[in-house]
Amino acid sequence: MIDEEMVDYRTVPTVCPYCGAGCGMLLEVCSGEVIGVLPMKGHPSSKGSLCAKGWSSPEFLKSSNRLAKAILREEGEEKEVSLESALGLVVENLNRVLEKYGPEAVGFISSARCTNEENYLLEKFARTFAKTNNIDHCARL
Amino acid sequence: MTNSIGEISRASLLLVVGSNTTENHTVISGKIIEAVRNGAELIIIDPRKIQLSQISSMHLRNKPGTDVALLCAMMKLIIDEKLHDENFIGERTEGFEELKASLGNCTSAWASEVSGIPVSEIEKAARLFAGAENASIIYCLGATEHVSGTDIVRTLANLSMLTGNVGKPSSGVNPLRGQNNVQGACDMGALPNSLPGYVNVSDDEGRKEFEDLWGIKIPESPGLTVPEMIEQALAGRMHFMFIMGENTVLSEPNSQKVIEALKNIEFLVVEDIMKTDTTDLADIAIPAACWAEKEGTFTSTERRVQHVGKAVEPPGDAKSDLEILVRLAGIAGAEGFDFKNSREVFSEITKVVPAYAGINYERIGTKGIQWPCSSPEHEGTVFLHEKKFTRGKGRFQPVKYRPPAEVPDNEFPYVLMTGRNAFQYHTGTMTRNSPSLEREAMYPYVEINPSDAQKESVKGGDMVTISTRRGQIRLRARVTDAVCEGQIFIPFHYREAPANILTSEELDPEVKIPELKVCAAKIKRGQSRGVRSCNNTFLNSF
Question: In CATH, which of 1.20.140.10, 2.20.25.90, 1.20.58.2190, 3.20.20.70 is domain A9-61?
Answer without folding.
Answer: 2.20.25.90
